[in-house]
Amino acid sequence: MKKVSIAILLTLALVLSTIGVATAHQDGPSGAHLFGTGAWGNIELLSVAEVTQTAGLVADVAVNPAGTYAFLANWGEAKCALNSEAGGQNNPDAGAWIVDIRDLTNPTTVGFIPSSQDSRPGEGMQVVHITTQFFNGDLLVMNNEQCGKNGKGGVSLYDVTNPLKPYKVSEHFGDRGGVSAGDSNDIHSAFAWDTGPNAYVVMTDNFEGTDVDILDITKPNRPRLIAELDLNTAFGGAVVQSSPSNLTEVFLHDMVVKNIGGNWVMLLSYWDGGYVQLNVNNPANPTLIGDTDYAAIDPQLLESTGASLAPEGNGHQNEFTLDNKFFIGTDEDFAPYQMVATNTTDAVVFEATQGSDTPQIDTVTSLVGQTVFVGRACNGDPAVSPAGSAKIALVERGLCTFTEKLANVEAAGGYDGVVVFNREGADACSALLTMSVEGSIPAIFVNRPTGYALMNDGTYNEAACLAGASQAPFALGTLGDSTSVTAEFNGWGYVHLFSNTLVGGKFADLDTFAIPEAMNPSFASGYGDLSVHEVATDPQDAEFAYLSYYAGGLRSLEIQCSNPLDETTCELVEVGGYLDEEGNNFWGVETFVRNGQTIILGSDRDSGLWIFRRTP
Predict the structure, then answer these.
(1) Do 341 and 294 fall within a single domain?
(2) Is there a single domain that holds both residue 457 and residue 520?
(3) Does 265 share its domain with 181?
(4) Is residue 2 part of a domain?
(5) Environment class of residue 8 by beta-carbon count within 10 Å: exposed (0-12), middle (13-18) or buried (19+)?
(6) Global pTM?
(7) Strand, coil or helix: what is 102?
């Protein structure tokens, strides 16, 4: 959704530069990246601080309020192996690098903050200045997700007032009401804010339906849990939209808090529930301001390809513009194909999600055939071999990991793929999950009613399922219905521009933006992840924002309005960016001001910290 700039000469230069980058895009040696030609438009690369040569090791980026030190999340080696790059084999596998950026052209790694063993920081990296009577200084906020048997969850807080001498204030505080045997639940992200007398942090609880957890950190060495919310059920279910029917994964992913007009406003990215605003003047009792709804037809896909498909949701991360007139949300989507799953025996279409690290259903790969029930498929369970044409294993969730289930199905031999259906119990049953699973055959996830339907069992009862925790009543080896799971192209994740003016309890979706390759099926594989990840708005200019676009590089957007008095005429227009000749893989993006210039930090998952500035 582009608009012609008033400055014709500048537009011509940008167009020529953008064309140059587009024509230079190509497949990498291992099919892993989109390649570029460097900077274009209003973005200039200043320097790079390489902290690793291990692909996928770097996660989020944060900067202290003074703009003098950056902090990079070390996500940790695969399977929680000790990470020698963190400073030696005696160090834990993950944590945060400290990078001195006082000289923006010569950043230097000056320290490392280790996480607890088997605990990883990722999405929730932030430095905030706290001014309560119990603490006055800069706090580094880090989330914790487990990646091994010794892992711990919750939020960790470090005093980084002197970044060269970081001090642990508290660690692993959070909600202990989940399934982690007395430890705090894993949290995917965290965001802290200071009101003066008090300070708070909101966290994404990975383990519970009440996934909006708020801590009082006025005494940061003694955080207190003061609120838990499930926005699926809170406020009369106003956040959940009934259609399109595929928008079933409704949970918190990320959030920011900002003082707007004297009110503390929390803006939450609630995945298929869209983007939600809460008033948190009293964080112990938030109230609903309003939310967004996804359109019936995906607007970006329709504009780019002409295809009329339902949107995928996936509200991932967001920020307000400087003047608070708009907010920008990023929908993260790693699957450029939409599955079409059909019970061909009953001629019924059903909803399904794909496993994370298994062969993806696309225009080449499909999953067609009869199902056979193989139980939970955990270690020690009886193996069930394919029977005739029944080469799709129907597996019940529970007891062991998805990867263990898939490995046991593969070990039985002869299966073309796996369908996992949900277990009994609260927050399960009819819910859909995106499985974190590794394997060499396709794996999809369906809800429990679909699993029963595939077994031609009409006894499913939702109330009994939510209240119970028993296994499915099917005999091992029972043949089920036939299924066909195919795919059609629906693009990667992209960006929304929302009005911050509330109308009828909703915020209007004004425009969307995607890089051209993300809406082109020719780039669906072999070019890296072409989904957007995060957005950072400009701290001194309300019209600009910057995107970390994974393999699409860093992108600079301008909000352009043909009629400044009519926000419905406002659009997101790309005016610059950076994509390295050898490709990038940007996860995080952060902004600050130095000597009147906007500085942009990007965390490249495969290398480290990249420092840019916005030019005129």
Answers:
(1) no
(2) no
(3) yes
(4) no
(5) exposed
(6) 0.84
(7) coil
* Cα angle value 76/532/77 (rounded, 5°): 10
Per-residue pLDDT tens for 562-603?
999 999 999 999 999 999 999 999 999 999 999 999 999 999
Structure tokens at 189: 């992200």
Asked, for residue 3, whether it belongs to a domain, the answer is no
User: Cis omega (within 30 of 0) on the bond before 616?
Assistant: no
Residues whose CB falls within 8 Å of the CB of residue 598, separated by 6 or more in sequence, listed in order = 538, 539, 540, 541, 544, 591, 592, 613, 614
Q: Which of 403, 409, 397 lies closest to 355 in space, CA to CA?
A: 403
Could you list the residue range(s) of the whole structural domain that residue 547 is in?
Answer: 8-336+490-614
Q: Are strands 337-343 and 479-489 parallel, antiparallel or unpaired?
A: antiparallel
d(CA 135, CA 154): 20
C-alpha 172/C-alpha 155 separation (Å) is 5
In a domain, 1, yes or no: no
HEC assignment per residue over 373-420: ECCCCCCCCCCCCCECCEEEEEEECCCCCHHHHHHHHHHHCCCCEEEE
Q: Could you identify the residue written with the tokens 């390649």?
A: 35
| Encoded tokens for 334 | 């790693």
Q: What is the distance between the alpha carbons of residues 431 and 420, in angstroms, rounded to a whole number?
A: 12
Q: List the structure tokens of 17.
A: 């530069």
